[in-house]
Amino acid sequence: MGRRIRVRGQVQGVGFRPFVWQLARRFGLTGWVRNDAEGVLIEVSALSEGFEAALRAEAPPLARVDRIEASDVIAAPCAGFEIRASGAPGAETRVAPDAATCPACVEEIFGTGRRHGYAFTNCTHCGPRFTILTRLPYDRAQTTMAAFDLCPACAAEYGDPADRRFHAQPIACPDCGPRLWCEGAEGGGAIEAAAALLRAGGTVAIKGLGGFHLACDATDPAAIAQLRSRKHRPAKPFALMAPLEILLRHAAPSEAEIALLKDPAAPIVLLAKTPGLPEALAPGQATLGWMLPYTPLHHLLLAAVGRPLVMTSGNLSGEPQVIGNAEAREKLAGFADAFLMHDREIARRLDDSVERITPHGPMVLRRARGRVPATLPLPAGLPDRQVTGYGGQMKAALCLSKNGQLLLGHHLGELNEALTWEAFLQADRDYAALFDHTPEAVACDLHPGFRATQHAEGRGLPVIPVQHHHAHLAACLGENLWPADGGKVAGIVLDGLGLGPDGTLWGGEILLGDYHGFTRAAHLAPAPLVGGDAAQAEPWRNALVRLDAAGLAELADRLFPEAPRALLRRAAATGMNAPLSSSAGRLFDAVAAILGLYPARQSFEGEAAMRLEALAGPPEPGYPMGTGTQIDPAPLFQTLCRDHAAGLPPATLSARFHAGLAEAFATRARTLVETGAARAVALTGGCFQNARLLDEVLTRLQGVPVLIHRATPANDGSLALGQVLIALAQLEST
């Protein structure tokens, strides 16, 4: 009696079949293994519990085994164990994300073999995946490597089950693979020319996995200032790249942070600043975003430069990252002194993922390269049906449900930008085609002005509109596998803004609900958002209306003497372009403006709030806020302004603000759990990317079950996930 074994999950393009081949030989089994539309199928001639257990326990590093199904069969006799040709194509299995260069390949490019110094070295354990895939199944002919015919040496490795390059679709070498060159810099090879220019203070546009980066010497203040001037980016933090041994000279990461840096996803990891590097890398911030080199090209270049590099997205302001060579020459010529290019095409643009480690575990701020298209399991009790969620206007991302899995797509950006909108439409087509997805309904935000909402309504399918903060709550529940019948949860949802069903703009909420629905249990007292979108860019506007509401109009006059205060107050009184908003994000802006942090205008979204977090000193008792279901911040502003007038340090004021906000919301959420109205508390919304706020709230919820984001962003990057889960709950009842 033999066994037929089905392995489901992320098991194609990760070396799973040669792993099974080697495992079968170890256990003395005969039979076969192959890829098919559902994953990996194995047939062995005899029963072996150890073999089946090892399939999960010893799986290759990039594999993710979700489920193993086995049944007894009468196996056809086989002389040995063989790897058979793939079965029928399909999209029932999953594609692995792009993976950072593995240690064996790093050793190879710095060794003496035929791939010495080769910038496109890879194997089944590393290299490009999603960024080169054009269609399924994941075979070389369906990738941008199809243009490169294998040489005899690579073909031999590709066909040898004992070789780590067996069926490595991007396999290449200098004789048959992509080539690298440097335009605009002279001397030596491409790497040497680019490195010399970087050491001399120049800027180089570098073609990576998911797009171009702009690089300069991170230790050179003049080079940093030049790049900021050219990009018109005065303060937004730059990401840095360095090998670990160089990174450790400039940062002191914990073991958990080092492990995250070395993860195959190779995200940007926020690390605490230490003295030494120029402040201009991240003005006013307490962290720097670091990543390790994740392609052979990066390893070779960093080794040649010998110092950390700025590695920021290569794009015009507001536009998505450049991916094509001609596009780079056209759009980045004003930024870069030279171009380090290659002739392997990028099938889809992917920004670098951004993550951090908090005292409460990992936090994802941007989900992109290295994390996508990995999936999340569908929570128990929700129907396994195909739905597409289109997310919101900011930090756009799509989500698809199929086969008990949820595919949350990559970060796209702000949909008001024309090219980002084109990228959104392409992603919609792209994911549907790649994963053979045919939705029976689409879900979108309640706001009719969002482009994603308008797109959903134009699909000709049933549309399920979802309130913004309900989607945030559902996303947090879904990531934590909260079952459909798990009961109601008290969701503390703090973010910028989202349209409420009452027509006002919400953003400082306690919702009592689940996937099926919600009620508004408490919320921040609303204030006019005078000027609409202008209030999101100019913190003084939020400070003025909050100070006026707290009876501190004279102080507002002294703080903002040059501002058009009378005009603003008339607009607030009449409601002219001044919608009411309970936004917690704008509360951060108001406090920051009072403390003198970017009061006139922010140079990027969230700048004032990030600076306020960075400023916070040791824990302090919190400022008071009003009682009741409408949380009035007037007492907070009154006390804060007294402390400010008394000369208390801004670090103390920031600490007390964070503590007061946390206390007001945590106390009410805890009460909902203790009275039996809720089973747990969920923390979600973009404000919970603030690690200090997260810690302050969790400290006040000790002893209460709390759900937080760890694998998906708390910000709008997860809205589509929540929308899909709510839509599935509604479809279940129809």
Automatic annotation (TrEMBL):
Domain Acylphosphatase-like: 2-85
Organism of derivation: Pseudooceanicola albus
Any one of the GO BP annotations: protein maturation
Protein known as: Carbamoyltransferase HypF
Alphabetical UniProt keywords: Hydrolase, Ligase, Metal-binding, Transferase, Zinc, Zinc-finger
Domain YrdC-like intervals: 188-370
Signal sequence segment: none
GO molecular function, one term: ligase activity
Catalytic activity: C-terminal L-cysteinyl-[HypE protein] + carbamoyl phosphate + ATP + H2O = C-terminal S-carboxamide-L-cysteinyl-[HypE protein] + AMP + phosphate + diphosphate + H(+); an acyl phosphate + H2O = a carboxylate + phosphate + H(+)
Gene3D superfamilies: 3.30.110.120, 3.30.420.360, 3.30.420.40, 3.90.870.50
SUPFAM superfamilies noted in UniProt: Acylphosphatase/BLUF domain-like (SSF54975), YrdC/RibB (SSF55821)
Classification via Pfam families: Acylphosphatase, HypF_C, HypF_C_2, Sua5_yciO_yrdC, zf-HYPF
Taxonomic lineage: Bacteria, Pseudomonadati, Pseudomonadota, Alphaproteobacteria, Rhodobacterales
Active site residues of this protein: 17, 35
EC assignment: 6.2.-.-
Family: Belongs to the carbamoyltransferase HypF family.
Pathway per the UniProt entry: Protein modification; [NiFe] hydrogenase maturation
Record's function text: Involved in the maturation of [NiFe] hydrogenases. Along with HypE, it catalyzes the synthesis of the CN ligands of the active site iron of [NiFe]-hydrogenases. HypF functions as a carbamoyl transferase using carbamoylphosphate as a substrate and transferring the carboxamido moiety in an ATP-dependent reaction to the thiolate of the C-terminal cysteine of HypE yielding a protein-S-carboxamide.
